Amino acid sequence: MKILITGINGAHARMVALRLRARGDEILGIDRRPWPDAPEGVHVFQTDVRKRPAADVFRQHRPDVVIHMATITHFTASAEERLRINLHGTRLVFEYCHEFGVKQAVFVGRHTIYGAAPDAPLYRTEEEPPLAVSTFPELADLVAADLFAAAALWRWPGLKTAVLRMVYMLGPTHRGTLASFLAGPRVPMILGFDPLYHFMHDEDGVEAIVRAVDHQLNGIYNVAGPPPVPLSTLARGTGRQPIPIPEPLFKYSAGRFGLPYLPPGAVAHIKHPIVVDATAFRRATNFEHKHDAHAVMVSFRES
Amino acid sequence: MGPFRLETLTSRDVRDRLERLELPFNQYGMDPFGISKKHLGVFYSMLEVFYKNYFRVKCFGIDNVPERGGAMLVGNHSGGLPVDGGMVLASLFFGRDLPRHATGMVEKFAGNWPFVSEWFSRVGQLPGLPEHALRLLQDGRLLMIFPEGARGTGKLFKDRYRLVQFGTGFMRIALQTGAPIVPFAFIGGEEALPTIYHAKTLAKIVGAPYWPVPPYLVPFPLPLGCEIHYGKPMHFPGTGREPDEVIEGYVEQVKSVVELLVLRGCALHRQRTDGTFAQEPEDSSSGSSSAAPASTSGPTDPDSEP
């Protein structure tokens, strides 16, 4: 099978590429960053998904499956840049999928789009609205990208579309949103709050993406591994020191004293949980996580 | 001196009972809903003091609560603060050999209060959302519901033991999940914390629906005796998709059973406060009806030896 992975140079995308390559799939990749030592059978096109050469990759190579992982969450990029990459990039990728006869598109999205709020339920199902547009406005571009990808389900019914809302991936790669949050020796918390955090091992996340391809999923699916643990447990389990900060002082501490920089909207996500119900995905793919929460934290801490 | 450990605040009895509690704790002592064994230990040790010594709660009909599987406990709010909820939880934990933990459906404002939010979620008291109720019942858990809501705890002393309007959401969920409804009455809370006035400005400042002011000003309950009366489980036919009037009819049935339990409980409470308290009166109503109100077993005195 010919599989195109956008954003192939991300740590998790590389893992997906290597997994698929190892079992004999032909892998194409698009990324702005080079992958100089890409293994044989992995062809990386160094371009931006929004540029004309990207369309040409679709046109000339006609992939069967596209795994769209060229989205960013880090807030060092400007809001405009994030919107360009996350929303406009997603739009173009899906249009190319339709135009060039791709059979299945897998959008690798995030569970954070559900947003954290004091009155939001634990275990969000796929039917829940994406509250992040109001609870964490800086994530609006990712919410829009997720909804745009999901719109392909009715817009182009001939194109199988899997929208994966994946919990945080964590592990030896030290990459991803949660890994950045836990990068320093201290982890900020809001005094008096200790929300549940839902995460899965890097390898389990990769396995889930591969299964979405194998089962030709068509629909919106939450993807999760082990049950969630409180942020304080996560911080200690990864060898970090949780630092409870009174909420009014939080904005003054972000990016200082060895604490990570976080946009103002992140406060809700440090106060309240976002936990998803991944039953539908498990049922559709027989996916079982291999690493429990303890193993995930240890693998992050010790690598 | 080593770091302070929460476990040191847990009593021996609570520790033993926690081991018998049928919750799927993982290696961190956490269940999938975020309930923490460690926090439960402290929580129940604190409730134990209030249950056994402060309010000297007498519990009747605890055997009406299923030992396993999903069920909804539905009762009256009694007193200016939801101490009734705490005592009901304690009765389920201490009232029988096999302890059970119930999840209260908490007012949403609590989720924004520092520490309260954290503790409520660690001891399994979740925001009162239909999604939570449904999921917990499907998972075979016990739910504690006060369908009067904040209107119930917010009532003034002059309106004591007069039930206000019941919400109807719980009934649809009970029908949808097939969970039995165990009605209960909590007696004594109204006297323990009599509300004579609502401090509206204070309530607004702290983001609460009301702020109770008793005659002695400080909103803390007095150490007066309380009782809990569990009635027989009620089952209703349906799927949860019935029209409002059907649901309202069912809810009225539950409300009238709770009212009856309150009435009987108040009579017994008077005997207790007058010093003539002897034994739970014989159950005169028949036991087999789907909506039978009365409790059948005798009092479970928390002070007595097993």
How would you sum up this structure, described in words?
The complex is a heterodimer of chains A (303) and B (306). Chain A has 303 residues and is an alpha/beta fold. Chain A has one domain (2-177, 199-227, 277-291): Rossmann fold (3-Layer(aba) Sandwich). Helices cover 39% and strands 19% of the residues of chain A. Chain A has twelve helices and 13 strands. Chain A has helices spanning 11-22, 52-61, 79-99, 132-135, 140-155, 177-181, 202-214, 231-237, 247-253, 266-271, 279-285, 293-302, and strands at residues 2-6, 26-31, 42-46, 65-68, 104-110, 160-166, 168-170, 186-190, 196-197, 199-201, 219-223, 229-230, 241-245. In chain A, strands 3-2-1-4-5-6-11 form a seven-stranded parallel beta sheet, with helices on both faces. In chain A, strands 7-10 form a two-stranded parallel ribbon. In chain A, strands 8-13 form a two-stranded parallel sheet. Chain A is globular, with a radius of gyration of 19 Å. The relative contact order of chain A is 0.14. Chain B has 306 residues and is α/β, with parallel strands linked by helices. Chain B has one domain: Glycerol-3-phosphate (1)-acyltransferase (3-Layer(aba) Sandwich). Chain B is 36% helix and 12% strand. In chain B, strands 4-3-5-2-6-9-1-10 form an eight-stranded mixed beta sheet, sandwiched between helices. The longest helix of chain B has 31 residues, at 244-274. Chain B is globular. Mean pLDDT of chain B is 85; it is low at 281-306. At the A-B interface, strand 12 of A face helix 4, strand 4 and helix 5 of B.
